[in-house]
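Why should sequence recovery work at all? Because a backbone constrains its sequence more than one might expect. Tight turns favour small or flexible residues, buried strands favour hydrophobic ones, and helices have their own preferences. The token representation captures these environments compactly. In the example below, the structure is given first.
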């Protein structure tokens, strides 16, 4: 057992014990060098049966988590072991498990459960998108931490496994009674993404009803058996999640998330009303098609109608004053023509108009891409069939994650940049920038991971060269003033964040000064004239604000450099 004040590996100072399980103790610790708080999980040989087996399992779990990076997953930054102790250093998560919440407060509010389930869909979809896919297999309230801000974190990857394409069954049958899918007990095929969907459905059932499916009566009744006021649409979703046959469940987390976003549309009353509306709509469309078929043929008439309606939805979106109404119009357009990139790009354009890509906009973005046509094909998979349009959209999506989120989300941008590394459909200048951004995002991710433990050993000189390559071309003429400004702001921000590292790795003060002068010159001589000609006042104000942010950052860097030089001169 560790005591307050103990320093582990010369870095992690134990502050206090914060938890204890069957074979482990969890402490709060601080890395004083990096000024960051961590959780340290200690497993000792003493008192643990089959310690070597447990130790090997922990190594597998930690290696798995080290490769993952997602806002709803804890990061593991260090593993320290000797012959008697195994220590795992990971993110300190402030909050309580949902199991604790159930014990203290009972069944949870419907809207809260749906919000948590959406987040869990996101993280499961991320795990399932890995190559090979990672199947979590142990979703339950005690493995979900609820933070004070409403974010949930998925913990304990002890029985997670990688999906094996050539296997017909799991090598070990593991899971928690009541939450585990039938296939986790063997004899019904290998566990896959649909297994996690079953476990999530069982977890939602417990959270909504307060009844643990692993306790008597050992079955899941429809949720309205326990609480009549719950949504009939949500009841349908949970019943579909927990079907014994995986083929009868939702086939992906994107399908499930879409259903959760529209659960009220599955309510009995809504379905009856919409059924009548759809019958009238279908009759009118059929009549129109039949009338047109005599002249140009059934297929051509349908295609023309779809195109007209698609264009009309795009026009309606432009005219709509309400953001939700605009998004609904774009989604209607996408439903009609899921392989046309125009509506997708317009949605992204709308989101980025305020030079921000908020968490809510990111959620809608994922919803837009994950919507299914009913046959398991997502909008993204259908858009991918239009290679030129898809590659253009990938570029826009990468820019959104890279530049328009505070400090950027380089890991999310990597996914989109990866798809278009060798695109034949992008302009040469765009392709050059894509390759550079991919290098920077990859490099940034490595720097960030290493820095978590306060031990960065990477070459900031190479990182500097990649950043400077972004400032060599006239981005304003190649693209537009907005793109130029957000690129320059990002470069300046990285200089601001890593100025000391750059200088310590051999980047001379003159190089830093020259880079700032070059960016300053490009903003004044290339971007500012475009801003002055901008006729839309809101856009002009937005551009001016971004420009001011970049200029203020440059002033801060120059001040910081001056102070450093002054201090050195007075020593």
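From this structural description, the recovered sequence reads:
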């Amino acid at each position: 057992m560790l005591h307050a004040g103990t320093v582990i590996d010369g870095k992690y100072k134990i502050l206090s014990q914060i938890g204890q399980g069957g074979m482990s103790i969890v402490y709060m610790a601080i890395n004083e060098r990096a000024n960051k708080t961590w959780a340290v999980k200690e497993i000792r040989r003493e008192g643990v049966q089959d310690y070597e087996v447990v130790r090997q399992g922990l190594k597998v779990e930690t290696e798995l988590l080290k490769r993952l990076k997602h806002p709803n997953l804890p990061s593991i930054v260090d593993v320290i072991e000797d012959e008697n102790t195994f220590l795992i250093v990971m993110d300190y998560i402030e909050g309580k498990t949902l199991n604790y919440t159930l014990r203290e407060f009972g069944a949870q509010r419907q809207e809260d459960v749906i919000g948590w389930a959406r987040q869990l869909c996101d993280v499961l979809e991320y795990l399932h998108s890995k190559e090979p896919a990672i199947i979590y297999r142990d979703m339950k309230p005690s493995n979900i931490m609820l933070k004070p801000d409403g974010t949930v974190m998925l913990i304990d990857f002890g029985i997670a496994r990688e999906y094996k394409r050539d296997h017909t069954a799991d090598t070990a049958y593991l899971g928690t009674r009541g939450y585990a899918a039938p296939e986790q007990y063997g004899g019904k095929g290998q566990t896959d993404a649909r297994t996690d969907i079953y476990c999530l459905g069982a977890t939602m059932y417990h959270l909504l009803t307060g009844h643990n499916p692993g306790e008597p009566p050992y079955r899941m009744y429809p949720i309205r058996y326990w609480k009549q006021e719950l949504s009939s649409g949500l009841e349908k979703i949970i019943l579909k999640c927990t079907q014994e046959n995986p083929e009868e469940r939702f086939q992906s987390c994107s399908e499930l998330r879409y259903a959760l976003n529209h659960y009220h549309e599955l309510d009995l009353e809504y379905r009856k009303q919409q059924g009548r509306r759809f019958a009238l709509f279908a009759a009118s469309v059929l009549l129109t098609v039949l009338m047109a078929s005599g002249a140009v043929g059934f297929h051509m008439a349908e295609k023309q109608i779809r195109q007209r309606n698609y264009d009309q939805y795009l026009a309606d979106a432009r005219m709509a004053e309400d953001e939700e109404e605009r998004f609904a119009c774009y989604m209607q357009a996408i439903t009609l023509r899921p392989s046309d990139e125009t509506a997708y790009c317009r949605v992204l354009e709308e989101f980025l108009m305020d030079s921000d890509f908020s968490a809510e906009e990111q959620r809608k973005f994922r919803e837009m891409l994950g919507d299914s046509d009913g046959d398991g094909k997502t909008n993204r998979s259908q858009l991918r069939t239009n290679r030129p349009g898809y590659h253009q959209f990938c570029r826009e999506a990468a820019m959104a994650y890279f530049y328009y989120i505070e400090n950027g989300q380089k890991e999310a941008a990597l996914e989109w940049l990866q798809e278009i590394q060798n695109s034949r459909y992008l302009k040469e200048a765009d392709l050059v920038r894509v390759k550079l951004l991919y290098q920077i995002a990859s490099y940034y991710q490595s720097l960030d991971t290493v820095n978590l433990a306060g031990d960065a050993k990477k070459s900031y000189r190479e990182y500097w060269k990649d950043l400077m390559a972004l400032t060599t071309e006239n981005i304003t003429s190649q693209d537009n003033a907005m793109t130029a400004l957000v690129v320059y702001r990002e470069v300046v921000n990285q200089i601001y964040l890593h100025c000391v590292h750059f200088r310590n790795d051999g980047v001379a003060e003159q190089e830093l000064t020259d880079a700032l002068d070059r960016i300053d010159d490009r903003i004044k001589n290339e971007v500012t004239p475009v801003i002055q000609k901008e006729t839309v006042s809101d856009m002009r104000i937005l551009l001016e604000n971004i420009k001011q942010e970049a200029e203020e950052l440059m002033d801060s860097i120059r001040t910081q450099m001056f102070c450093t030089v002054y201090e050195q001169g007075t020593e």
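A few observations help interpret the result. The first helix runs from residue 51 to 66.
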